[in-house]
Write a structure and sequence with these properties.
Elements (H helix, E strand, L loop, with lengths): L7 H18 L5 E12 L9 E17 L3 E5 L5 E5 L9 H13 L7 E7 L9 H16 L6 H16 L6 H8 L4 E6 L5 E5 L7 E7 L9 H17 L16 H25 L7 H13 L6 H12 L4 E5 L6 E7 L3 H14 L6 E5 L6 E2 L2
Parallel strand pairs: 3-5
Antiparallel strand pairs: 1-2, 1-12, 2-5, 2-6, 3-4, 6-7, 8-10, 8-11, 9-10
Amino acid sequence: MPDLSPDPHALELAEAAAAAFRDAHLEEPEGLWAAPGRVNLIGEHTDYNDGFVMPFALPFYAAVAASKADEWSFHSTYGNGETLRTADLDGVEGWAAYLAGTAWALNESGHPVGPAKIALHSDVPVGGGLSSSAAIECAVLIALADLYGHEIDRAEAARIAQKAENEYVGAPTGVLDQSASLLCETGHVMFMDCRDLSREQVPFDLAAEGLAMLVIDTQAPHRHADGEYAARRADCEEAARQLGVASLRDAPRHAKLDDDQLNKRMHHVVTENDRVLKTAAILRSGRIAGIGELLTASHTSLRDDYEVSSVELDSAVDAALGAGALGARMTGGGFGGSAIALVEAASAGKVEDAVIAAAAQAGLPVPRVFVARAAQGAHRVK
């Protein structure tokens, strides 16, 4: 059974959200909720192609304190702290769009919610490709569902949060990030089929094998709502159309198209799905070290076929591998953000030093490096 007790760090962040709520409204909130960011172990840009993914939740959380209200009030501790009050959900922009959009998506999906006061506090790195926006959406979703008495299946909830991101915020992401935030379990990586959202929690005990997973936030901003992400998705849809299949999940392994760019996009999706299936099989056998080559192959494909890497990500991956990492790759949508490196625990410091030194030598931002653990998915904290 998964551990359903509140994550201690999530509780700490939620208490900060509660303090912000009290400062803004001079009253106690009705409850506290939190949802994590995520790292995708492998399976990149496969989610919107009905493919396979393997994320795990990070111990960084978006936490909200909330109560029912007569009008919408969104408060954030970002920057100097801001409060937006509005009578309706139309046209909300900036950070508050993720909160307003989630409420809008719940209403649009047949789970009506009324106005609420919501205070947000998060330590999920913004722009690091670790799903800071999905964490916000999922925390707000479970809070509003609780406040207004809706019991929503978590897989359906992921689709609703994705709707907020796609149709309200305007970022054409797949369902990976929201599913990871809502469905991942402590100590496990989640193998998920993005076509039907069926999933399997696979044990992921790095310490038992003397291993560690480094997350390398390159400090190069990662943005989903730009034209490049949308262009990759459009390429995949066009490739599937030309093949006459529902999505690239169904592409024949050795299919060829006349357009070289579309072929490259298709090749990445087909081979990445294969890498996810192989990774899942290795992890089920309890041999985590065996996935290293698959992680590195994923990065090569994302760099060369999908063309979503960056100089910062390539520097981090190359330096980690050069310092002895068992495998490394960019994670997330790309164009900046974060990389991961599977390392022997005893060599984590050496790999971190090499990554930072390589960035300095190339005149790149100093990366933030930390050891990841598979944390708890979205939950009510108090």
